[in-house]
Write the structure tokens for this entry.
Amino acid sequence: MKELYTCVLKNGDAISFKTDMPKENIKDLPTFSNQHNFNSYFKSSGYNLEIDIITKTL
């Protein structure tokens, strides 16, 4: 879990995170509607998730 990734949600929030998910799977992540869906996806997939920062849009 060294590399930092960023995922932009449908609501405009951007989540910077680290995970043990293979890099090729990161590229195929769906577009999540909110933070809860994002967190639930990783939890149900069995991957570790470490959120670095969440940038909220106004």
